[in-house]
Design brief:
single chain, alpha/beta, about 50% helix
Length: about 280
């Protein structure tokens, strides 16, 4: 057996930290040191028979440090921990905000690696009922991931990707992107655009219910149509919209969206959005 890689998991008892913890327990090649400060998180780990390691003790031993902590805290946490790391240590972020916002401390002799799950696709076929209800993936459902080598030697990409696959698996595909491309994907595409549009769709359903449409009928009708429309728009269905549907979309677009809505992908807007996320706790 090859030598174990020591991973210091920051925020091990939190929501994301627990997912990472549960997956890494399946991989004996990783020796995980659990770092947690909240009483609730410590209790959650204890219920799994896992003991915490004091932060400085974990950092002194770590080959890799995983930041399973909120985006708004990463800058503050990294300012504290990065000076304590051994040369060559890899710091893994689970979201591009801190890296793209420039809040990761300057230190040329360590590696910054960023990775994020794609989550299970709406078109993904799963035979296991538990997998069909695994909305985030990485528990029962397979998913793809995106990763970026933000800073460090090229050979460290494979090291970071291997850990990412272990943390988020089972994995369908692993995509390499840049830090900026990951920020374009999230927050810009997945949250600023998609989550906003989906929120408006839900508000639309609530509005037709307010107008008197039975709630169960509105929900069934809308969710069924969303599935079909997604299949058409993303080239899964093999047939187009009807002429009437095309006309409805054409007429509704200028009523619902500003002409310049694609500004959300402009670098200036993207940086503003990511800075807001990274500095939210200040």
């Amino acid at each position: 057996m090859s030598e174990q890689i020591t991973v210091a998991l920051m925020g091990a008892g939190g929501k994301m930290g627990r997912r990472v913890t549960n997956n890494l327990l399946k991989f004996p090649e990783y020796r995980v040191l659990y770092v947690e400060v909240s009483p609730r998180g410590i209790q959650a780990l204890a219920e799994q028979g896992l003991q915490i390691t004091p932060q400085d003790e974990a950092l002194a031993q770590a080959d890799i440090v995983v930041l399973a902590v909120p985006d708004a805290l990463i800058g503050r946490i990294c300012d504290d921990i990065v000076p304590k790391l051994r040369s060559g240590t890899m710091v893994v972020g689970l979201d591009p905000a801190a890296g793209y916002a420039g809040v990761l401390p300057e230190r040329k002799d360590i590696t910054y690696f960023i990775t994020h799950p794609c989550h299970p696709s709406v078109f993904q076929e799963e035979s296991d009922p538990l997998a069909r209800r695994d909305w985030f993936g990485g528990v029962h459902a397979a998913q793809s991931i995106v990763s970026a080598l933000h800073q460090g030697p090229e050979e460290d990409y494979a090291k970071g990707e291997a850990l990412a696959k272990a943390m988020y698996g089972p994995i369908i595909a692993s995509h390499r992107v840049t830090t900026e491309q990951m920020a374009i994907l999230e927050p810009a595409l997945a949250e600023t655009l998609a989550a906003t549009c989906i929120t408006i769709i839900r508000e639309g359903m609530d509005e037709v219910i307010r107008m008197g449409v039975p709630a169960a009928a509105a929900r069934d009708f809308l969710l069924g149509h969303i599935r079909t429309e997604l299949a058409i728009i993303f080239d899964e269905a093999g047939f187009p919209f009807s002429d009437g549907a095309k006309l409805a979309v054409e007429q509704a677009k200028p009523l619902i969206f500003r002409e310049d809505w694609k500004r959300i992908f402009d670098r200036e807007e993207l940086q503003k959005s990511v800075r807001t996320i990274a500095h939210a706790g200040e």
